[in-house]
Amino acid sequence: MVGMSDDSTRGWISGGGRDTTQLDLTSGGLVPSPRDNRQVSGPAPVVTHDTVQVDRSVFSSDRVPSPAIATGDRAPDPLADTGSVDVSGVRLRPVEHHLDEILGAVPQPDPIELAVLDAQGLLCAELVTSQRSLPAFDQAGLDGYAVRAADIATATVEQPVDLAVVGETAAGDGEPASITAGLAQKVAVGAMLPAGADVVVPAAWTDQGAARVQVFAALAPGSYVRRVGDDVATGDVAVEVGTPIGPAQISLLAAVGRERVAVRPRPRITVLCAGNELVDVGAVAGPGQQVDVNSYALAAAARDAGAEAYRAGIMPNDRRRMVELLEGQMLRSDVVLVAGTFANGGHDLLQEALDELGGLTFTQVAMHPGPVHAFGKLGPDAVPVICVPGEPVAALVAFEVFVRPAIRLMLGKRQLFRRTVQAVSAQQLLSPLGYRQYLHGQVMRHPDGGYVVEPIGDGDQAMLARMARANCLIVVDEDVTEVSAGGLVTVMPMLLGG
């Protein structure tokens, strides 16, 4: 079976007619290797990425044209001395460098206090200690009979011990009770244990008598009894800082009397889209126009990653109104995410509006689809603004590579990146030299073990239907132009909420 790696920038595929079985991606069947346990702490983590070995015997880059990229003379080259690569005279910024800049700049929101139910899915930001003992009184661990262990020490099926039943206690009864030698009290699970009893005999191990009961087994003292503080004692830590708050933690918080708890809040992400060609979903697209899908898709992706996302929609086709819109959204946001098709070779209205607010540097990142990106901090509060390509498929790939890890960092998550598997490519893959390529695909578990992956389509940026059928991304490294059928590639399962 092939192994796994933790490169957050990898992907997947599927095809018909092959002797494979569909991988159940909801069953948690992906088993991480030690490298998947990379933890991140602090505001500016150092991000490292693994690579995967593939068949590199053929590097025929002339067979695979480089993707179209925007060029221009905006600002001094920000990539000098940063390990950038040069492809056909175009300076490209490595994916890791762009990611590191974003991760090093996103804010760490201050903890907030929420009602425990509203805290579900967030990380605890305080050390919660119990102000009470759990349980608060000695109680029965199941339905049965409270007795003294010494009285049933010789009990067997052949020679049961016979005891007198002196009463019955239900859960919630607060009246104290007690027993002495030779007596038993019928109790329900959670009921107060009568004084003198040190064992609860399960009802199934008795004849379930009402006035007298026969016990068919001996039990050690303390069996099926919950003592005061067995679960949590007064002063014990109930929930630690950094613990994800799920149903079990909410149960414990309620049990120790906490109605509210301090948590790392969901980062506020505003999604904007720029482009004269865009119309809203409810409008009829005319010649040359396209429906705005990015604001919906990116807002949904942000919510899936754990953010509180605001879909601000299409930006106005006016520089002054653009500036006002951006200024307003920066007041309410921890991060502003803008998708757009940026001008090739000169300024456009969006770039002019951004320049008025301080300016972003547009760079060409060594990835396909969508190499043109921008990042910077704008406004008096230095709000991070991330610009991703306007092609919907490229926009969602860029979100996976750059924005999702940033959201998880702001949430306080230790695992920033999706876990990945290495899979056998079911067919030949071609990739442009110098670009890390992300292909949508489907991954399957092979009956003989391991995973098989097949691409969906040919990597065209505009194929929304193909993307909707994918369950993974296939990632081909920058220095690989061809992966032979049967070669290993890294794939990133696209699990919802994963």
Structural notes for this entry:
With about 500 residues, this protein is an alpha+beta fold. The chain folds into four domains: about 1-70 and about 415-498, Beta Barrel (Beta-clip), CATH 2.40.340; about 75-110 and about 265-410, Molybdenum Cofactor Biosythetic Enzyme, Chain A, CATH 3.40.980.10; about 115-125 and about 230-265, no CATH class; about 140-225, Molybdopterin biosynthesis moeA protein, domain 3 (Beta Complex). About 15% of the residues lie in helices and about 25% in strands. It contains seven helices and 31 strands. The chain has helices at about 95-105, 245-255, 295-305, 320-330, 350-355, 390-410, 465-470, and strands spanning about 5, 20, 85, 90, 110-115, 130, 140, 145, 160-170, 185, 200, 210-215, 225, 235-240, 260-265, 270-275, 280, 290, 310-315, 335-340, 360-365, 365-370, 370-380, 385-390, 420-425, 430, 435-445, 450-455, 470-475, 480-485, 490-495. It has a six-stranded mixed β-sheet with strand order 19-16-20-24-23-21, sandwiched between helices. A five-stranded mixed barrel has the order 25-28-27-29-31. The chain has a five-stranded mixed β-sheet with strand order 11-8-10-9-12, with no helix packed on it. Helix 4 crosses helix 5 (about 350-355). The chain starts with a strand and ends in a 5-residue tail after the last strand. It catalyses: adenylyl-molybdopterin + molybdate = Mo-molybdopterin + AMP + H(+). Its cofactor is Mg(2+). Belongs to the MoeA family. This is Molybdopterin molybdenumtransferase. Catalyzes the insertion of molybdate into adenylated molybdopterin with the concomitant release of AMP.
